Task: inverse folding
């Protein structure tokens, strides 16, 4: 790591570790909060982000069934957050994987599905975290529990899931050495000190507005880099949990990975920026909150419109109650196997197949495997809406 890039950083200091040929430079972040000048431009961006987030929160509170959005939005986040780390799974792959896992006991993923398993683990970790918030606030303990679930059974599983690292890590091109690295986080002793200060900040009162605190926290976690793998995904997952934990949203409706993935170069550059990193980073973060809040609102309304359109279409055809229930289930799981949905709706396989055929005839469902056994059906309109890159 080139120490000159970080020599004048207002976010931390560089230290020399070791002696002789094995010595290297590492970056140790200063404790939060930093000094931040609230110039007029930043105040305007904060106001815009607060306004957009408030509108999304209002939508979440007035929706008769917010789970129409929570489950699909969470899975979209899992796909995009993992994509930043290099996975190549799509949202259809994730839903198909979940459907097969439920439908086929003992099913083991093929090697080609390793990326999908990583995305699936992100879903599990985030769902676990949201449930765990009922009994445990965001803390180092919760962060370790999330990491354990994120890394279970995937590449990097050997990197001590659920445990903070006991050795030095670094960021850079494959096979690069410590001295060739782009960034070297704090050594283990300094890392534990930084984590202690980080947790103290999580639980302390601060004069900064919550969204600015979130920007600080995300930056700080990535700078500490306390795990041997999975740091980026845990850091982005924490944003979603804190939005709910702090009462900024009634339910998990906002995720920033779509914005970070769309502006990946800026995201990484600003996390490594040396000159006035807080000012530029906070602006970028607030832009992401505003952008993704607006996107979530548009996406939510389109899902509601699609649901209303399908209801009208079904009612005109005078289709039975089970078919209506199955249509509603599509917003919960737009990809499913007949045995799975029959079990969930507590009806016979034959009854489910009759409803599936009616939804196929109505253009709502489509079989996607082309097989005679272990078939999967998908609501492609829902998947297309979730997969669309940007709606604002």
Result:
């Amino acid at each position: 790591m080139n120490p000159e890039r970080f020599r004048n950083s207002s976010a931390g200091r560089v230290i020399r570790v070791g002696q002789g040929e094995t010595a290297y430079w590492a970056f140790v972040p200063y404790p939060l909060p930093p000094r931040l000048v609230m110039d007029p431009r930043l105040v305007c961006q904060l106001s815009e982000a607060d306004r957009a987030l408030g509108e999304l929160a209002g939508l979440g509170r007035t929706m008769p069934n917010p789970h129409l959005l929570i489950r699909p939005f969470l899975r979209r986040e899992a796909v995009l957050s993992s994509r930043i780390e290099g996975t190549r799974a799509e949202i259809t792959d994730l839903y198909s994987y979940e459907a097969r896992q439920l439908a086929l006991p003992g099913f083991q993923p093929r090697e080609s599905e390793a990326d999908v398993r990583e995305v699936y683990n992100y879903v599990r970790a985030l769902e676990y975290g949201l449930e765990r918030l009922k009994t445990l606030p965001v803390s180092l303990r919760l962060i370790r529990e999330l990491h354990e679930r994120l890394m279970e059974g995937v590449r990097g599983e050997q990197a001590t899931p659920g445990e903070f690292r006991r050795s030095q890590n670094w960021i850079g091109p494959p096979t690069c050495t410590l001295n060739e690295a782009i960034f070297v986080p704090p050594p283990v002793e300094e890392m534990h000190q930084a984590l202690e200060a980080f947790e103290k900040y999580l639980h302390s009162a601060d004069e900064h507005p919550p969204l600015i605190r979130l920007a600080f926290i995300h930056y700080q976690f990535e700078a500490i880099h306390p795990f041997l793998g999975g740091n980026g995904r845990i850091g982005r997952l924490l944003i979603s949990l804190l939005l709910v934990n702090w009462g900024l949203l009634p339910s998990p409706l906002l995720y920033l990975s779509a914005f970070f993935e769309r502006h990946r170069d800026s995201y990484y550059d600003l996390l490594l920026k040396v000159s006035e990193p807080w000012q530029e980073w906070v602006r970028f973060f607030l832009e992401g909150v505003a952008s993704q809040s607006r996107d979530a609102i548009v996406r939510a309304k389109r899902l509601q419109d699609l649901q209303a359109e399908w209801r009208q279409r079904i009612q005109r055809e005078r289709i039975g109650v089970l078919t209506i229930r199955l249509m509603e289930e599509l917003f919960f799981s737009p990809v499913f196997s007949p045995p799975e949905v029959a079990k969930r709706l507590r009806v016979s396989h034959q009854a489910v197949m009759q409803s599936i055929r009616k939804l196929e005839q109505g253009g709502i469902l489509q079989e996607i495997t082309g097989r005679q056994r272990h078939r999967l059906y998908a609501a492609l309109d829902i998947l297309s809406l979730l997969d669309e890159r940007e709606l604002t």
About this structure: Residues 277-317 form the longest helix (41 residues). The chain is about 55% helix and 5% strand.
